[in-house]
Structures are given as structure tokens and as C-alpha cells.
Design brief:
α3 packs across α5. A hairpin with a 5-residue loop joins β3 and β4. The chain is globular and about 45 Å long. About 20% of the residues are buried. By secondary structure, it is an alpha+beta fold. The chain has one domain: Metalloproteases ("zincins"), catalytic domain (Zincin-like), CATH 3.30.2010. It has a four-stranded mixed β-sheet with strand order 1-2-4-3, with helices on both faces. It is built from five helices and four strands, in the order ααβαβββαα.
Amino acid sequence: MPTYTGISSEAFRHPLDRQAEQALRNLPGFDLIARKFVEFIYERPQLVYLMGNTIQVGPRQYSTIYQMFRECLRDLDIYPEPTLFVSQNPQANSYALGQENPYIVINTGILDLLDEAEIRVVLAHELGHIKCGHTILIQ
């Protein structure tokens, strides 16, 4: 996969995504309310849960997935590195949350179903949500 040093989310955002986000952000107080809502209702409680009930991916835990994740971070020029968790869950799902300290959760259901190239796509997809700032526009 090529590396896109300095890539902006504007390089791959759909015009309707850009338009919908702008409409929301034009609402007075939306950014503050959305950020605080996600932070206190989803992000913090979920992060505490994840630290106790999932595996944080790293060089010694799920090292192959961590290497793929690091390559996606490099290729999409994302810094700082979000935290990646693997959840023991048969449902094929993944998601990204967090503004100040973003993180990604990928369920074992996806790992069981997909090959390495497809897992890279899932990781890049979730990283795209972080890069585009979608993590406050959830729910």
C-alpha cells in the first residue's frame, strides 16, 4: 500500500459527508455539546470497560495485527497512534471512539472471518473515522 505523507481527510471524504458535517457544526454550540456528550456518555466509560475486559493490541499482544495497524497509521499519516483493542465477541464489528485519546475496537468475530488484506481495510476504515473527526458524530 502506498504511503500518503501529509494526507488530509479532505482527500478522501465524500462531498455529502462534508456537507452533512458542516450543517451539524453550523448549529450553535454543537461542537461543545457533542464532544462532551460523547466524552462522558461513551468514551470514558467505554475506555474503562475496555481496559479491564479486552486485550490492548501491541508488539507482544496480537503482534501481526499490530504490525498491520502500524502500517495503516504510517500509510494514512495518522499521529498520535490511537489505541487498538481486540474484544472477545463473535459479532463481526469494529468501531472508533475518542477525541483526545482515540481508540479502535475490533471484535474477534471479524478476525475469524476476514483475511489479512480485509482486516487492513477494516483498520483503515476505522482510522479514516478518526482522521475525519467522525468520532463525535456517532450514535
